[in-house]
Amino acid sequence: MYKYEIILYWSNEDETFIAEVPELPGCMAHGDTWSKALSNAGDAIELWLDTAQEFGDPIPEPKGQRLMYA
Hints:
Blueprint: E1 7-11, E2 16-20, E3 28-31, H1 34-55
Antiparallel strand pairs: 1-2, 2-3
């Protein structure tokens, strides 16, 4: 189980739910329902981490706290 923060929202432009993982740059997923978007985000996190490990890229530790946005 991964402990990265996921931001889930509805996109009017794409007409779907979007799940973003801000601690992993470019990591996001979508789905027709919020639960599907969240499930797909779990898959995206796993793929992001596997790819980073494969290429020797640094893997950020989860902050374990709510991210702050202005």
